[in-house]
Amino acid sequence: MQPVIYADLRCLQDQDFQGRGIGYHTAALLRARNGSTLAGCKLIGLIDARMPPLPSAFTPLVDEITSSVNPCLNGAPGVFIDGSPMTHDPRFGLRFQNHPRILNVAALYDFIPMDWPGYLPTVVSRVEYTARLARLRKFDLFLPISEYTAWRLSELLTISSDRMSVTGACVRRSLYEIRDRLGATPSPYSLNQPYFVTFGGDDRRKNTEIAVKAVRHLNLLYGRRIPLKVIGFYSRGYKFELLQLAGHAEGAGFLEFHPSTFEEKVFYADSPDKWARPSISDAEVVSLHAGAIAAIAPSYIEGFSLPVAEASVCGCPVVASTCAAHMELVEQPEALFRPDDPATLANKLEALLNDPALRESLVLSQAHLGPKFHEDAVGTRFWSAVEAAVETSRRPNLAKQRKPRLAFLSPYLPDQSAAAFYTAMTIRSGENLFHTDLYTDTARPLPFDDVFRDTGTISAAPLLDGSCNAVISVLANLPTHSAAFEFFERYGGPCILHDSRLTHVYLYRLGQEKFLQFAGNLLGRSVSMDEVTVWLQDRNPAPPLLEPIIERASPLIVHTVTQQAFIKDRYGVNAQVTTCCPTVTFSNDELSASAKQAVRELYGIPPDVFLVASFGQIARVKGMDTSILAVELLRSWNIPAELYFVGDAGRESTELDRVSSLYDITAHVHSDPDFASDAAYRNFLIAADASVQLRTYAFGELSSAVIDTISAGLPCVTTSDAARSCDAPAYIKTVPDRFSPLQVAEQLALIWETQINPRAHAETRSDYLKTHNFNYYGRRLIEILGIA
Length: 788
Description:
The chain is an alpha/beta fold and about 800 residues long. Helix content is about 40%, strand content about 15%. Helix 19 packs across helix 20 and helix 25 crosses helix 30 (about 740-755). The longest helix has 18 residues, at about 375-390. The protein starts with a strand and ends with a helix.
């Protein structure tokens, strides 16, 4: 079975690394995969949604891009490649690094922040770096860019050599192409002013000072201008210091800067105080090196030193400091100097200045560096090491487990939300299908705790458990459920979406000001708090704000085919459907005529009354006014209808009384706090002759009340959207999604005219419940997750 390869692409999102260092190295390695035996494996690029977008130039490097770092991991082997393990947040790869079927690969540059003063100036930065260093132990295969980096890794963490393979660093392909186009160049000795070049930068570790001192000595010694062309970005202050060492103003002596456009700042859009560093073209880099007597590499410490290999590509000999990384590349004693010895450097430069044969000798002896560090050659070494590690990996196979293990991050009973109930029933019914770890912030004790492992409150902890095949975030539209939302927002992954509207939880998470901006951005218009208040009060349906969810979900799981169709139509995403399940179930005896009569007697309801019930929280978006007017019409048609609102009236109780009084039907509209209990809900499902379940919106959401009427064999009038959402059988009557009281009354009248014993629906009801139950739900869930 071919492994799935996951590659951390954050270094390509990071503007500081996209075109150089770890960014270029990572991109080059990914390009080289096509020449390896792993070219047929699926390669998934992992990005961080909190970082700048991945530039489109990098998207062809992978087969798929996702911001979900919490994938389902079953028996299939996998490879996780981290190109910047010492640079970015180490929590990003938790899911991969703790899974026993994932081969973790680290491409290592260096440990310079630890080894050179000034990189870690605060306690916090030192602690963070140490944490990253400790996290390296989680990797299985290390691919350092130099023998020096490999040695330092072994020294710091006692990593054995059989877990390492040195690859070298990738020299930009463009330098080879430009060099080949450039062809033969005139001898640097034929120039009026032969020059030296050095590739440095604003980092004092690069030690540009010694190059300036040595070349100044030559200028004074020979009494003529011998230029030093300095490549790289230098801040105003550092440039001034170097000019002072040179003994002249900018443009008035031997020291030249390439580029020299520091004052022309180009600001990043996301950070006005951060400038884009002016860059030099690769063509100019090749040209400057090709025409130089020699290149100077004066650094105190390097992980590899690309300038040495790049100079060789350009046909330019290198004189390098004796740091460990340089001595791997430059072996000739006549080309080495101590980084604190400008006199020796000056002597070696003078020898090259006066001896073309010496220069030619160094060019030939260093010529092997160009081919050795071409990105194709480095990539071949990299992927060969990965291939070998995949072949020899002897990790235990999770596929041999009797049952998969699922971790749920979810609200749970006694929380009264539908999400809590669904999670509880899924876990209980799925006991024979999967093992369960439950992470919930619900107060303990927890019901049914004999069928799952209570693993604590919601956190990133399940990502550390390599035994979990899937870590599932269960999302609902309540502020009290925000912990699961926070986890999902950070890590993504499998997501069970209970609601198509998440206004409450977004508002709670973001606060008023940021929420208004967030909603306005998604809706493409300004949003006022008054409008949001109307949404929250269910006086007008809140719009779906699902973009952040859809971007992170892998897979996105919903309960209804209409919700699936809505998401596909609006967002172009294929959600997976489990099934919708009733929250209450009944035996045939509970639905008998005698049971119905007994419940009516309990509530003092005469047997000849046409009892119409509306279940759930009372709200205008649930057609409260329409239901009242429909019953008024029924009574005007001499149908003895009585309307019972079985649920919490809350702030709508005053409006309910007002509408009932306005149409003089108060005596026939019933609402009571006692009707909001679970017992009343169940009793009225048995006692009612019909139900009316309306909603003024059509987002394909699950209607628990409609499903429960189906479970009770109770005829119901509902909207087309709600009926489709629940896969409703024939005894559920529909009205248009934009309904009128007359349309509702006509459907209720048809139910009145054809009153029959609920047992008549027994066969249809039984067939429906075969695929709308939590046993079926559990089987669908593991099938969707790919771990069936």
